[in-house]
Design goal:
The chain is α+β, with helices and mostly antiparallel strands and about 130 residues long. The protein contains three helices and six strands, in the order ααββαββββ. The protein is globular and about 50 Å long.
Length: about 130
């Protein structure tokens, strides 16, 4: 296995851990996949940007507190690794239950990871809804 292939697979696994943490609706699991400093950044669909781990964490808590169920089927995954930074673009095909309302939809996502030691940690997540006619 080449170094490039190995790094791509490491990032693929980091991205899978992010979506499993998202589905868990558990802030402790989500915290394990993120950098926890001022470089953290998130833009949820329909939200303003959140900067720094404290704001990012609070945004996940708000989502988790209002969601009963979340399931992702992630498709169209493209990974680019450049040094200690990786970009993943993908489509999130999701099902969720918020309150009593069941939802399905698609989100185009960009996830950025930074390598810290032997770990790839999320530093940025941006989701934009895909509207179909």
């Amino acid at each position: 296995m080449t170094d490039s292939h190995r790094l791509t697979e490491e990032v693929r696994r980091a991205n899978e851990r992010f979506y499993r943490a998202f589905e868990s609706l558990d802030i402790e699991k989500m915290a394990q996949v993120w950098v926890q400093d001022d470089t953290a950044h998130v833009i949820h669909p329909g939200w303003t940007a959140k900067y720094g781990w404290e704001e990012v964490r609070d945004s996940w808590v708000a989502i988790f507190d209002n969601t009963r169920y979340m399931e992702f089927d992630v498709t169209d995954v493209h990974i680019l690794v450049v040094g200690d930074l990786a970009r993943v673009t993908c489509v999130e095909n999701l099902r969720s239950v918020v309150g009593d309302e069941q939802n399905t939809g698609q989100v185009q996502a960009t996830n950025l990871y930074v390598q810290r030691g032997e770990q790839w940690l999320m530093v940025h997540h941006h989701g934009s809804p895909i509207f179909t006619s």
